[in-house]
Amino acid sequence: MKLVIGIVRPDKVNDVLEALYRAEVRGFSLSRVQGHGGELDRVETYRGMRVKMGLSDKARFEIAVSDEFVQPAIDALCEGAQTGEVGDGKIFVVPLERVVRIRSGEKDDGAVTPVGA
Ligand SMILES: Nc1ncnc2c1ncn2[C@@H]1O[C@H](COP(=O)(O)OP(=O)(O)OP(=O)(O)O)[C@@H](O)[C@H]1O
Ligand SMILES: [Mg+2]
Q1: Which residue's C-alpha comes closest to atom 22 of ligand 1?
Q2: Count of the separate structural domains present in the chain
Q3: CB neighbour list of residue 81: distance below 8 Å, 6 or more residues apart
């Protein structure tokens, strides 16, 4: 199991949602975050230039998946979020040790996919 974390442009959230739905990836969390992706704003000052590390608003998907859904989840994030311009975002894939469904006590692969989708 992996936790696929996708940080995308907020205005691409709906496209990512559609792509996740088509890929049959059903469970995820979404939050609004701020981040810095390397772009530097140049600020003019009286005696020259300064650079400022700006923060941009981003949307963060956290998608816990069994191994077979890792690549579909990555593909859906890319397909939904890519514009080709700098700042499209990034995907992190991290090992996931345990999942527990609170209602039933089911564990791991039996718990990672929501029931009743
Ligand atoms: N190394 C990182 N660690 C954690 N979060 C990151 C990292 N790089 C980028 N992010 C997050 O992703 C957001 C978008 O980053 P961004 O798309 O600019 O990445 P990038 O690697 O610089 O790609 P690009 O070349 O397209 O700009 C950032 O605002 C930040 O929230
Ligand atoms: Mg960047």
Answers
A1: 37
A2: 1
A3: 6, 8, 9, 12, 15, 16, 88, 89
Q: Would you say residue 117 lies in a domain?
A: no
The model's pLDDT over 80-94, given as tens digits with 9 standing for 90+, comes to 999 999 999 999 999
Within 8 A by CB and 6+ apart from 15, the residues are 79, 80, 81
**Size of the chain, expressed as the number of residues it contains:** 117
- By most ligand atoms within 8 Å of CB, the mutation choice from 8, 90, 91, 94 for ligand 1 is 90
pLDDT tens for residues 7-18? 999 999 999 999
Q: Residue with the nearest Cα to atom 9 of ligand 1? A: 37
